[in-house]
């Protein structure tokens, strides 16, 4: 029968040859000739090429020019019998698109994979008990296997992920993946199934008719579905609706494929009432949807597929295993290649081509798999870039160990299985292998007596004998019990945990800011701040100075001076502090501020970098005490220099007189020899003299913080004297260094006095003796400051040890009276209670029940506890010029103090006769907090009445408003008692900087409540902000390098007024990337947000004849390294912000900031898209009533925000942000959207328009169509 069927086939081939006369043809057969037909019917001609094997045949006929071109592919020598091939044929084969694997499925529901071209078996598993495997598709996570009634997903190692079955799956034949999570399945049934692999549900059933669907293909536009009767329907990829229909063959369709604009099919036609295979491949042009010239082939086509790497090459396979490569474009001179696959006399059921086109695989009815490989690649690769295939771990081989090796552990050799008995003789006894646990501590008898049982659970009140949530572990015998040692719980209560974490009050702990996908918008700041004052965020680099910034803000004379300070210096810290103080005035607890602009300028000051004040991510083991004290000294001197320079630049004529007066004021030389000044003649001495005069010049800062001193150097040999005046802005406490001195009692007044005025002998150069001589140096105070800034030192163990001894002496002194507690009930907070007036019993406070317990300096402050640091003290200068510092007298004195009582009375008499006397009160304290895991800085500030009045309305001001102490811990602010400001444990709370203010100056400058109300009422009326736009009018830029040619500066007749509309937009760049971490649950959490910096600010007019014309388009120059320019979203390119390369209109951030601040102070209304985030990055406060944000105008509650690009396309019909963003274009668009919003509101159509917006957005997935 086999030969009879092949006879007409050969004759048809010969008839086909005669049609192509005088053409060059090359036929290549790989395999035995007996697979085609009888040997006498085939003319075998060997190729003349010397390198070809005997399997390469080229038939030759008269009238044909036979060439000697090489074959493209070579067949594998021996077919491989697949798993189950003895009983079932290979129904489908598929190359893996991700790894070097070949997958096959047979007619018995079994799937096997083979590794590389050597076909090494990789995995093998059963997917169904009896159904035929119809098709296999490879995805990233595994393989999808379709049987007649089920869909199976398994990973490549063979583990199943899911199996889907439903009543709609009756006779499945084919499937196709449309997207990573979308799959369509069809077969000899009336329904086509749309399946969602994410939810594992059938999302849609499309009716295809009784003919069903046997072949599925797709391109970029259509889904092609072919049925068994020769019809191919073109369906929409999204809706699956029928768009077009193509009739391919008259009777039946075998297979088809789509490539580019062509659809090629093979099938059956009716001939003489019989079903015959078409020798012609039908070709359809998808652009015109019509049939074009068919392609004739030399075999009976059963299956076909385009080569992935060659768009014009087609592989055609017959059911007999004959294989032909057809060129679809060069039909005038076709190059035909033919092969014969060894199917063992059975029918070829399936074939597939690898994505690299280097290999092909065929499956037949006999259960074998044949592969052919490209001639050029003896070791073909299935994919161009395959990932590594995961294999099982190789079992390590035991090492070869010599018998004489005495160091080898014999226990590492596995013992063989027992053949007799149940244990080895070398096994340890069972009693030694039992787990042994420490016996738990016996429950207290008081707990057992008061316990109430609820089922198996017992409840009892806490006896408060230990800290909360802590159980001390004691190595004691069970029989003794835990109550035999009464000091166990007490000792455990006063020690810290083994991990080093110290228990401190919550208000002192560093609060971590939690970030979400919305940043800090949904963070509840009011939970940590119940006051009326605004905090500072600590997310930016060098935010350790937040506590000091709050102290400077609440120093009233300094705040008033900096609010009115302006200068032309680009990076002026005084100006930036004034801007920050203005933000703190206007902000509330729910909207904390950022000192981003101040820190930006701070990083550019070379002196700050030289002092080591600028921290980076690589900074480690930073001593915060030394750091903040150096920062305090630096900022006071920096403000002093900046205000001095701005005063000189503002008055050119008066600068010479000022410098001359400064020279005469800052240096006073008193000598006994007329030749003393003769030696000071070199240039270096003059330069030092000018620098010292600059330091000691009179400014507003020196008036507030400056302590004037005179330093007298007297040579002991020749008694020549030389004096100079200095201004001390920050005082460093000097503690005793000698052991005898440190053992004595020193109060705060003694230490402060020896720190401000001292006398010592040093070696100095004497101009009279012309050599280094022993010199007596004495420093005396000549003038007292308004505010005394004190650096406490305490950056070494010696100073901390000295202060601990002084604090212990203060706590050991008896108090004047014993305050009785109103109850004997223990406080629930124990030693962590911070209330000084708490009426409950505390184990660390003196009471009738704890009268013998020693004082604990780690406890919370109480009104009965005396502190070494005073809240107030007197300081003055007597007639002899000696400094007198006196702390207020206590009600009870120790014996040592009684001995010095006469000396104190003498100091009081001298102070009463003195020429200068002031009383100082503690204004602020900056402390370092160490909880054992991290260190942070907090400040405790005595906020004056005026600051409370600024934050409330006039009607809320009452006479009861008094000064109040607060603790400022970044954005966490809470009120505290005054005694807590001078309570220090030196364990976790260490003082760093103290600020004392003169109470006389404070009383003179403090207004009454009525004066405060009147001042607040008139402040907005009398304050006229400085207009920075006048500079553009007086000196316009001749070379306008702006990217927008329509930029037109404001003229004198169009200065903004209150209520004017101004459209604004800004672009940003990234300075530091976002830092994330992966939580244990697998979710990503943001540790630190990305640090953004403004790069471009654009403002356009919102009304008038020049409406829509920009008047600000500033590119902000930056000296910092930009990590990401965000060009796609900002339009900023590398080099645009560099003054050396940019062709933009570059300006400093300070000048653009002053323009925006002027517009805010005037009261204009800003229109924009997402302005809240823009103003946050620019670091400027804008009241909410001055912001109109199109994000919120066109927002439906509880729905997503709409992008500006989609709003502009939907409402205005314009496309913006096509390639990059342009701030001027975005600002114009927001203005037009606001005008359109007003029009819709006037026509009462806004609600309908908003609903249509969201409906259309959901349909288009919020993407603007490209066409």
Structure in words:
The chain is elongated, with a radius of gyration of 46 Å. The longest helix is centred in the middle third of the chain and has 27 residues, at 624-650. 23% of the residues lie in helices and 26% in strands. With 1267 residues, the chain is α+β, with helices and mostly antiparallel strands. Strands 37, 40, 41, 42, 43, 44, 45, 46 and 47 form a 9-stranded mixed β-sheet that branches. Strands 53-52-51-48-54-55 form a 6-stranded mixed β-sheet. Strands 3, 4, 30, 31 and 32 form a 5-stranded antiparallel β-sheet that branches.
Taken as a percent bin, the fraction of beta residues is 25-35%
Proportion of helical residues: 10-25%
Tell me the total number of β-strands.
55
CA-based gyration radius = 46 Å
The major sheet is characterized as:
9 strands, mixed
Overall mean pLDDT = 78
Give a brief description:
The protein is built from 28 helices and 55 strands.
SSE blueprint:
Layout: H1 2-18, E1 24-25, E2 65-66, E3 73-75, E4 80-81, E5 90-95, E6 101-106, E7 110-115, E8 120-126, E9 133-139, E10 142-147, E11 151-154, E12 160-164, E13 172-179, E14 182-187, E15 191-196, E16 201-207, E17 215-218, E18 222-226, E19 231-236, E20 242-247, E21 252-259, E22 262-271, E23 274-277, E24 280-285, E25 290-296, E26 303-306, E27 313-317, E28 322-327, E29 337-340, E30 348-353, E31 359-364, E32 368-374, H2 445-449, E33 452-454, E34 457-459, H3 487-494, H4 546-553, H5 556-563, H6 573-586, H7 596-602, H8 606-610, H9 624-650, H10 652-666, H11 683-695, H12 700-705, E35 707-715, E36 721-728, E37 731-732, H13 739-743, H14 748-756, E38 758-766, E39 771-783, E40 787-791, H15 797-812, E41 872-877, E42 883-886, H16 895-899, H17 901-912, E43 916-930, E44 935-943, H18 945-951, E45 964-969, E46 972-976, E47 989-998, H19 999-1005, H20 1009-1022, H21 1029-1034, E48 1061-1072, E49 1075-1078, E50 1084-1088, E51 1091-1101, E52 1110-1116, H22 1127-1130, E53 1146-1147, H23 1149-1162, E54 1165-1168, H24 1171-1178, E55 1187-1189, H25 1190-1193, ...
Parallel strand pairs: 1-2, 37-40, 48-54, 52-53, 54-55
Antiparallel strand pairs: 3-32, 4-32, 5-6, 6-7, 7-8, 9-10, 10-11, 11-12, 13-14, 14-15, 15-16, 17-18, 18-19, 19-20, 21-22, 22-23, 22-24, 24-25, 26-27, 27-28, 28-29, 30-31, 31-32, 33-34, 35-36, 35-39, 38-39, 40-47, 41-42, 41-43, 43-44, 43-47, 44-45, 45-46, 48-51, 49-50, 51-52
Helix pairs in contact: 5-6, 6-7, 9-10, 10-11, 26-27
């Amino acid at each position: 029968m086999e030969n009879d069927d092949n006879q007409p086939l050969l004759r048809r081939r010969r008839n086909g040859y005669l049609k192509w006369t005088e053409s060059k043809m090359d036929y290549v057969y790989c395999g035995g000739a007996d697979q085609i037909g009888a040997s006498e019917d085939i003319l075998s001609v060997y190729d003349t090429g010397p390198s070809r094997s005997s399997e390469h045949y080229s038939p030759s006929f008269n009238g044909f020019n036979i060439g000697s071109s090489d074959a493209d592919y070579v067949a594998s020598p021996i077919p491989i019998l697949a798993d189950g091939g003895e009983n079932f044929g290979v129904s489908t084969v598929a190359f893996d698109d991700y790894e070097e694997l070949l997958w096959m499925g047979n007619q018995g529901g079994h799937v096997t994979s083979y590794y590389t071209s050597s076909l090494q078996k990789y995995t093998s598993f059963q997917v169904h008990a009896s159904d035929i495997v119809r098709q296999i598709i490879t995805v990233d996570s595994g393989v999808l296997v379709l049987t007649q009634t089920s869909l199976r997903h398994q990973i490549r190692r063979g583990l199943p992920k899911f199996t889907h079955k439903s009543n709609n799956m009756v006779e499945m034949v084919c499937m196709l993946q449309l997207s990573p999570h979308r799959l369509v399945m069809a077969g000899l049934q009336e329904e086509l199934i749309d399946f969602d692999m994410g939810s594992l549900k059938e999302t849609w059933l499309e009716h295809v008719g009784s003919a069903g669907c046997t072949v599925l293909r797709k391109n970029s536009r259509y889904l092609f579905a072919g049925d068994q009767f020769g019809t191919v329907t073109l369906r929409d990829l999204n809706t699956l609706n029928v768009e077009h229909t193509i009739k391919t063959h008259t009777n039946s369709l075998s297979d088809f494929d789509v490539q580019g604009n062509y659809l090629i099919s093979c099938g059956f036609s009716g001939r003489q009432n019989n079903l015959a295979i078409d020798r012609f491949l039908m070709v359809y042009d998808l652009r015109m949807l019509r049939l074009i010239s068919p392609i004739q082939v030399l075999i009976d086509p059963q299956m076909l597929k385009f080569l992935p790497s060659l768009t014009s090459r087609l592989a055609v396979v017959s059911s007999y295993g004959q294989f032909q490569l057809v060129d679809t474009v060069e039909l005038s001179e076709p190059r035909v290649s033919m092969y014969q696959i060894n199917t063992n006399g059975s029918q070829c059921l399936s074939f597939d081509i690898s994505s690299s086109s280097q290999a092909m695989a065929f499956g037949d009815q006999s259960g074998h798999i044949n592969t052919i490989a490209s001639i050029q690649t003896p070791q073909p690769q299935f994919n161009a870039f395959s990932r590594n295939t995961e294999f099982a771990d190789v079992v390590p081989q035991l090492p070869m160990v010599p018998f004489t090796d005495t160091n080898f552990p014999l226990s590492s050799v596995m013992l063989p299985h027992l053949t007799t008995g149940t244990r080895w003789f070398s096994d340890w006894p069972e009693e030694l292998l039992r787990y042994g646990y420490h016996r738990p501590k016996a429950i207290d008898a008081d707990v057992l007596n008061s316990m109430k049982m609820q089922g198996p659970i017992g409840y009892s009140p806490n006896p408060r004998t230990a800290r909360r949530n802590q159980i001390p572990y004691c190595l004691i015998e069970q029989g003794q019990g835990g109550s035999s040692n009464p000091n166990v719980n007490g000792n455990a209560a006063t020690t810290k945990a083994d991990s080093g974490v110290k228990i401190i009050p919550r208000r002192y702990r560093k609060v971590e800011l939690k970030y979400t996908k919305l940043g800090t918008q949904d963070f509840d700041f009011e939970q940590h701040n119940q006051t009326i004052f605004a905090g500072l965020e600590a997310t930016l680099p060098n935010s350790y100075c937040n506590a000091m910034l709050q102290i400077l803000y609440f120093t009233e004379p300094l705040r008033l001076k900096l609010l009115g300070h302006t200068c032309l210096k680009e990076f002026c810290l005084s100006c930036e502090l004034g801007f920050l103080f203005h933000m703190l005035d206007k902000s509330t607890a729910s909207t904390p501020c950022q000192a981003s602009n101040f820190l930006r300028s701070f990083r550019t000051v070379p002196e700050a970098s030289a002092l080591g004040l600028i921290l980076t991510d690589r900074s480690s083991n930073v001593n915060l005490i030394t750091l903040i004290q150096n920062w305090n000294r630096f900022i006071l001197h920096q403000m002093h220099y900046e205000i001095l320079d701005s005063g000189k630049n503002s008055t050119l004529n008066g600068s010479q007189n000022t410098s001359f007066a400064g020279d005469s004021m800052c240096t006073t030389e008193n000598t006994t020899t007329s030749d003393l000044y003769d030696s000071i003649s070199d240039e270096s001495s003059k330069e030092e003299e000018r620098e010292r005069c600059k330091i000691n010049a009179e400014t507003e800062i020196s008036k507030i913080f400056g302590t004037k001193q005179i330093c007298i150097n007297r040579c002991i040999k020749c008694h020549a004297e030389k004096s100079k005046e200095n201004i001390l802005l920050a005082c460093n406490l000097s503690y005793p260094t000698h052991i005898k001195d440190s053992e004595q009692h020193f109060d705060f007044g003694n230490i402060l006095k020896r720190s401000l005025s001292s006398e010592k002998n040093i070696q100095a150069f004497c101009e009279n003796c012309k050599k280094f001589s022993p010199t007596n140096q004495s420093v005396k105070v000549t003038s007292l400051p308004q505010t005394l800034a004190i650096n406490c030192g305490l950056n070494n163990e010696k100073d901390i040890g000295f202060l601990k001894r002084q604090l212990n002496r203060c706590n050991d002194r008896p108090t004047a009276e014993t305050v009785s507690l109103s109850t004997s009930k223990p406080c629930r907070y124990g030693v962590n209670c911070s209330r000084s007036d708490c009426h409950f019993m505390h184990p660390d406070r003196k009471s009738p029940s704890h009268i013998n317990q020693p004082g604990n300096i780690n406890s919370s402050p109480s009104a009965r506890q005396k502190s070494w640091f005073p809240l107030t003290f007197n300081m003055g200068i007597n007639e002899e010029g000696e400094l007198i510092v006196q702390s207020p007298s206590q009600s009870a004195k120790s014996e040592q103090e009684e001995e010095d009582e006469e000396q104190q009375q003498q100091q009081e008499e001298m102070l009463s006769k003195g020429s200068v006397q002031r009383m100082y009160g503690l204004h602020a304290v900056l402390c370092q907090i160490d909880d054992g895991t991290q260190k942070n800085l907090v400040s405790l500030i005595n906020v004056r009445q005026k600051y409370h009045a600024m934050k409330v309305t006039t009607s809320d001001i009452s006479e009861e408003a008094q000064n109040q102490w607060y603790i400022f811990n970044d954005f966490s602010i809470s009120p505290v008692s005054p005694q807590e400001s001078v309570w220090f444990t030196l364990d976790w709370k260490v003082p760093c900087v103290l600020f004392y203010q003169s109470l006389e100056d404070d009383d003179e400058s403090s207004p009454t409540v009525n004066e405060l109300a009147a001042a607040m009422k008139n402040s907005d009326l009398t304050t006229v902000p400085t207009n920075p736009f006048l500079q553009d009018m007086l000196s316009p830029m001749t070379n306008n390098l702006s990217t927008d040619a329509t930029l037109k500066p404001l003229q004198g007749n169009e200065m903004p007024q209150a209520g004017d509309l101004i459209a604004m937009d800004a672009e940003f760049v990234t300075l530091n990337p976002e830092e994330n971490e992966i939580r244990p649950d697998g979710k990503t959490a943001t540790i630190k947000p990305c640090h953004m910096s403004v790069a471009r600010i654009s403002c356009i007019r919102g009304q008038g004849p020049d409406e829509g014309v920009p008047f600000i388009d500033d590119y902000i120059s930056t000296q910092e390294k930009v990590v990401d320019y965000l060009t796609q979203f900002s339009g900023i390119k590398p080099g645009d912000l560099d003054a050396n390369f940019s062709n933009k209109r570059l300006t400093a951030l300070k000048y653009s900031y002053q323009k925006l601040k002027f517009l805010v102070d005037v009261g204009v209304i800003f229109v924009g898209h997402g302005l809240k985030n823009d103003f946050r990055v620019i670091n400027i406060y804008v009241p909410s009533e001055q912001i109109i944000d199109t994000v919120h105008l066109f927002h439906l509650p509880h729905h997503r925000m709409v992008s500006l690009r989609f709003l502009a396309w939907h409402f205005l019909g314009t496309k913006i942000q096509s390639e990059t963003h342009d701030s001027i274009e975005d600002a114009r668009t927001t203005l037009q959207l606001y005008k359109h919003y007003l029009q819709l509101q006037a026509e009462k159509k806004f609600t309908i328009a908003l609903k249509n917006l969201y409906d259309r957005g959901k349909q288009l997935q919020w993407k603007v169509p490209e066409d």
